Amino acid sequence: MKISNKQQLDEVQAFELIFRKYYVRLCGFANKFIANTAEAEEIVQEVFLNIWAKKDQLTLNNEIKPYLFKSVQNLCFNFIEHQKVIDNYYSVIEVVYKNQKEDFDTYESVLFTEFQTKVNEAIGSLPEECRKIFRMSREDGLKYAEIADKLGLSVKTVETQMSRALSKLKTELKDYLCILIIGLFLNN
User: Fold this and answer.
1) Of the four, 4, 36, 132, 146, which is 20 to 30 A from 120 by CA?
2) CA 2 to CA 4: how far, in whole Å?
């Protein structure tokens, strides 16, 4: 059966009339369910698009209002259910991320403790005079001249002892150098 241009024009005008009459009310109705104006408008527009797409199959017999409101309500319920799924998904992602971060933080902490123990052992293995000079420099923050003055040594002797200490520590801690560098990059 062929539809005339007049009949098509009548359908468009009828659809436009229904749209103008109910659009704002349907948006308000949808917004009561989902409390999101933009999404409410999307839902109402989807209802009207569905009606237009099925206009040849729908027989509403002047019952368009209840059909529109029920359609909007159903799409709102679908939207709410979909949001629950999305919220659950993000909750799971957040828990997994948090647990991985806690595991990583724990791993970093254990690694740092192990590294600190190795550093202390390496410093403890230095000869007494060398260890004393190293600690005065690194822990007390003294300059070579200040250390030399306090210990009654030449600055050159302090420099030599510090060079020996750093060389021995470098050798003792070489296995941890890569881990230390990675840790520095991860924290930035």
Assistant:
1) 146
2) 6
Structure tokens at 39: 């999404």
| Contact predicate 162/133, CB 8 Å | yes
* 124-180 pLDDT, tens digit each: 888 999 889 988 988 888 898 999 999 999 989 998 898 888 888 888 777 766 665
Rounded to 10°, the helix 64-124/174-186 angle is 150
* CA-only gyration radius of the chain, Å: 38
Handedness of CA 118, 122, 128, 132 (dihedral sign): negative
Beta strands of 51-148 (E only): which ranges? none
Class of domain 5-90: mainly alpha
Q: Which residues contact 46 (CB under 8 A, 6 or more apart)?
A: 75
